Amino acid sequence: MNAKRKRLLNITLLYWLLLLYIVAALVFWYLELEEQNLQMISHRISELVHDDPSYPEKLQALWSEKQRKSAQYLGEGVVFLAVIIIGAVFMYRAVRRQFALQRQQENLMMAITHELKTPIAVAKLNLETLQRHQLDETKRQKLIQMTLQETNRLNALAGNILVSAQLEEGKSFAREEIDFSDLVKNSLSEFSNRHPDRTWNVSLQEDTELRGDPLLLTILVNNLLENAIKYSPPGSPVGCSLQKAGGQVVLRISDAGAGIPQTEKGRIFRKFYRLGSEQTRTTKGTGLGLYLCRKIAADHHAHIKVTDNTPHGSVFTVKFEKPAH
Ligand code: ADP
Predict the structure, then answer these.
(1) In 3D, which of 255, 254, 249 has the Cα closest to residue 181?
(2) What burial class does residue 13 get, using C-beta atoms within 10 Å of its C-beta: 0-12 exposed, 13-18 middle, 19+ buried?
(3) DSSP letter at 262?
């Protein structure tokens, strides 16, 4: 990582030096031309005959010519300088974007490898235990349930990665009429089966329709539910409400976790952004979930925001401005 930063620093330094050299060469070229221009005119003035009655006009004509040439050199110089600066800015931005992209991809690879290893290792261990030992039915069921949970996590992660790649490529998505109430109900039933220890405070308005992509909207709902579970203590309640209000469809998912500090509320929707540091984090994740939620929301004319829950926790609100029509 350090070597890369050093390389980037070296390249940036070289780039600025080169640019400085080009601009200095241009200024030098302009001064040289000006000097030559002046010398040439001085020489031609010295050749003029002082007694000539048309001497003042000839002198005036020579000075006019000199000024015309100076203006021409200056004009050419300014155009060259502008072209160089515009080119340099474009190049600088392209290189920086390339480096940022590379860094993002490296982060993604690190996060994915990290995220993939754990569920695979757990599932493998569980299956080996089931294969090698004669376990009683309760233990067997518990191991199978744990393996299923890990497989679900893998599935959700694969979905998030695939969809973010597709959305970034600008891939078009389906725009069909969806019964959003049914979609949310299905996700909720899946989550409540997986987390029977939670109290689910659900209030869904029936027949809430939206126009969009069912797969993407499922990912949006699932990511918010997943976070509500992940970032709140076991056994604490999770809320989910869906309402139609004034031509808008509003989805709210709340939890009773620690909540999100005010300064972090804007940042959590950034790609790969996770609160805290590698040392302090106790939860698993890639920082892709909320980034995708915001992207999917935007693609569906919706706005997503987070507010504080009372007495503590977070409320994620997704407002769809243009429901099905
Ligand atoms: P991930 O969960 O994979 O880290 P997300 O993009 O879903 O990535 O979330 C980004 C960060 O926002 C999380 O790492 C977490 O710190 C914070 N966060 C998201 N949802 C909640 C929530 N319901 N309560 C508290 N913090 C949250």
Answers:
(1) 249
(2) exposed
(3) G
Q: Is the pTM of this model over 0.85?
A: no
CA of 275 to the centre of ligand 1 (A): 7
Res 102: pLDDT: 81
**d(C-alpha 82, C-alpha 88), whole Å:** 10
Q: What is the DSSP letter of 212?
A: E
According to the model, what pLDDT value does residue 109 have?
Answer: 76
Omega cis (within 30) before 311 = yes
The pLDDT > 90 percentage for the chain reads: 62
Q: What is the mean pLDDT of residues 287-295?
A: 91
Min mean pLDDT across 34-48, 75-89, 275-289 is at 275-289
Ligand 1 contacts (CB < 6 A) are 223, 227-228, 231, 255, 257, 260, 268, 273-275, 285-291, 314
Distance CA 283, CA 309 (A): 21
First CA to last CA distance, the chain: 51
Q: Which residues of 24-33 are buried (b: 16+ CB within 10 A; e: fewer)?
A: eebeeebeeb
Contact in structure between 210 and 322 (CB atoms under 8 Å): no
**Cα separation of 2 and 215, whole Å?**
40
User: Which residue from 185, 116, 113, 186 is spatially nearest to 151, judged by alpha carbons?
Assistant: 116
